[in-house]
Amino acid sequence: MTPRAPALPPRERRLALIEATLPLLHEHGRAVTTRQIADAAGVAEGTIFRVFTSKDELVDEAVIHAFRSGTFVTELETVDRDLPLRERLIEIARLLQERFISSFGLIRALGMMGPPDAVKADHDRRRDWRAHVAYAITALIEPDAELLRVPPAEVTRVLRLLVFAGSHAEITDGELLSPTEIVDIVLVGLLADPVAENPTVLKEKS
C-alpha cells in the first residue's frame, strides 16, 4: 500500500499534486487518471478534488507550471560561477537543453502543437518568464564580459536560440547538437579576439 503523504495546507497540496502529475503527463498524456495521480502523490483520490475542481483543472495547472521560469532559474543558480566561461556556458546549455527537450516531450504527449492556450494567451506573463530566465543566464555570463565582442545579454539570446533549435528533433533531423557543440559555435562566433589569442576561454582552469 502506498504510504500516505502528510497533511498540507491547500496551497502546498496543490503544488505537490502538480509536481506528482507532471511525470505522469509525459507518460500518459491527458489519459492519466486521478487514481494514478493520487498514488504518485501518496494521497487519497478524493484529496485531489479538495484543491482542484476537476482532473482537467489539475492537468492544465501542471502544464502551465511546466512552462514557468521559477524552477528553472533555481536550477541555474546551481551553476558554479567559478568555472571558466566555456565550462559555465556548457552547463547552462545542458540545463536549457534538458528543459527544452522536456517541454517538447510534454507537448507531444498532450497532442499539442505548441505551448497550451493558457500559457500563450497570457502574453505579459510569458514575457516576464522569458525575461526572468534571460536575466539569470546573463548574470552568469557577465563576469567575463570583457572576453566578448557583444554584450552578455546578446550571448544569452544567441545561446537560447541555438539550444532551442539544436534540441528539436525535427529541426535537427534527429541529430541533436550537444551542449558542448552549441557553446563552441557561440564562443567562436562571439569572442572579442581569435580563439588562439584567448586559449583560457576554451580550456578548463589548470
Question: What would your notes on this structure say?
Answer:
By secondary structure, this protein is an all-alpha fold. It folds into two domains: 10-65, Arc Repressor Mutant, subunit A (Orthogonal Bundle); 68-201, Orthogonal Bundle (Tetracycline Repressor, domain 2). It has helices at 10-28, 34-41, 45-51, 55-67, 70-76, 85-109, 117-121, 123-141, 152-166, 179-190. Helix 6 crosses helix 10 (179-190). The longest helix is centred in the middle third of the chain and has 25 residues, at 85-109. The protein is elongated. The model has no long low-confidence stretch (mean pLDDT 84).
Question: Care to give the gist of this entry?
Answer:
This protein is mainly α and 206 residues long.
Task: Considering the chains and any ligands shown, give keywords for the structure.
206 residues; mainly alpha; Arc Repressor Mutant, subunit A; Tetracycline Repressor, domain 2; 2 domains; DNA-binding transcription factor activity; transcription cis-regulatory region binding
